[in-house]
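Journal club side-thread
Mid-discussion, someone asked how the predicted structure for our own chain would compare to the paper's figures. Pasting it here so we can look after the session.
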Amino acid sequence: MVRRAKIVDVPAMVKLINSYAQKGILLGRPMIEMYESIRTFFVVERDDKIVACGSLSVVWSDIGEIRTVAVEDGYKGLGLGRQLVEALINDAKDLELPRLFCLTYQPGFFKK
């Protein structure tokens, strides 16, 4: 289930994001930054745990950035990342942001 992130989700999100940071795939995020930006995040919850997260950052009046998309290793290939990105795109549409971009080491994922 894709939903907006809650305060209680932050520790699991930090753990997931920082596991990718240790591999050099994402930028690490400190706990305080995650609490400050919680309203920009969506999560995927499966088996009563957070298995994916991502955020939409508004950059300017006409552009936003999809950021910090991560899926736990055991849940890859199930379409959860796609569902998460679709939720972020829909959030951008609700905000009437006409353009989005993503800086990534995984361009193949976002091309789909």
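Post-session note: The chain has a mean pLDDT of 94.
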